[in-house]
Write a structure and sequence with these properties.
The protein is an alpha/beta fold and 289 residues long. Helix content is 36%, strand content 15%. It is built from ten helices and nine strands. The longest helix has 20 residues.
Length: 289
């Protein structure tokens, strides 16, 4: 493995950083690992990033979801409202740029920690959703996987009047409802078996990523010429392990993130600049002509 250009971290991404990044990507075979920071421009909050302190709810753990019917019920009530925001989110310039890099044959894979489906909406294919996707549900009893859009239709029919008043919706689209209001929500059961509780097809805190999915990602990383981390603080091991894997194998790791990350010490290249600016610039420099 040839050594990657090494650039001293800077407070703002300088052109030398982007030059080095373009050199790495232009060689092809780069695997993208994306996180929440890539979707903030699409209006999806990054709870672990700069605004993490604004988090209003402790994330639901898998154990609570599975074992506490009331907690599960309230999760779905909030999710029924929050789904409007997810469904209306559109891919941003960063998502489109990643798809352009893939179209240009420069990527060896796209792995995302995001569950919003915006890579695919931006035109990317073969996206590995490390933590699953919110556009699907899975039945905890029979395992049936169904579309969230279909569930939403059933929920709307069952809850024609449920929801916050306009003045209860925050500017970011999030809605705060008191717990007793959430209890008025009517949840529906699995359409296939009629009894099973439904779970969004995402990996909750306290839940492990399916082994075959992890192995597939390790394969992609092992074959990569470089690992390009986009908008992830690498806080959770489920993504960070791929940085460790690449670094241990001498595969260059480039990180583009607005804040310091857990992986910085392992990175050969670190760019602190907005993804919505850097990624389109990267496309211009690597796919011109
Ligand atoms: Zn079922």
């Amino acid at each position: 493995m040839t050594s990657a250009p090494t650039v001293v971290p800077s407070a703002v991404g300088g052109s030398a950083d982007v030059d080095a990044l373009a050199d790495l990507v232009a060689g092809g075979g780069v695997v993208v690992l994306s996180g929440a920071g890539l979707s903030t421009d699409s209006g999806i909050p990054d709870y672990r990033g700069a605004t993490g302190s604004l988090r209003r709810h402790t994330p639901m753990t898998y154990q609570t979801f599975r074992d506490d019917p009331r907690g599960r019920h309230r999760y779905w009530a909030r999710s029924f409202i929050g789904w409007r925001q997810i469904r209306s989110a559109r891919p941003n310039a960063g998502h489109v740029a990643v798809a352009d890099l893939q179209d240009a044959g420069l990527l060896g894979g796209i792995v995302t920690q995001n569950v919003d489906g915006l890579h695919q909406a931006g035109g990317a294919g073969d996206v590995v959703e490390l933590h699953g996707g919110l556009d699907r549900t899975v039945c905890l009893a029979c395992g049936d996987v169904a579309s969230r859009a279909e569930l939403d239709e059933r929920l709307r029919a069952a809850n024609p009047h449920f929801g916050p008043r306009t003045d209860e919706v925050n500017p970011d689209g999030d809605a705060e409802l008191p717990d007793d209001a959430l209890d008025g929500f009517v949840m529906v059961a699995c359409a296939r078996c009629g009894g099973g509780p439904l779970k969004p097809d995402v990996v909750f805190f306290g839940e492990t990523v399916p082994r075959d999915r992890v192995d597939h990602c390790f394969d992609l990383v092992d074959r990569a010429r470089g690992l390009l981390v986009l908008g992830s603080s690498l806080t959770v091991m489920s993504g960070y392990r791929f940085v460790l894997r690449a670094a241990a194998a001498g595969i260059p790791v480039a990180i583009v993130n607005a804040w310091p990350t857990r992986g910085d010490a392992k990175a050969t290249l670190r760019v602190d600049a907005p993804l919505g600016t850097v990624l389109p610039e990267l496309v211009r420099r690597t796919t011109a002509g």
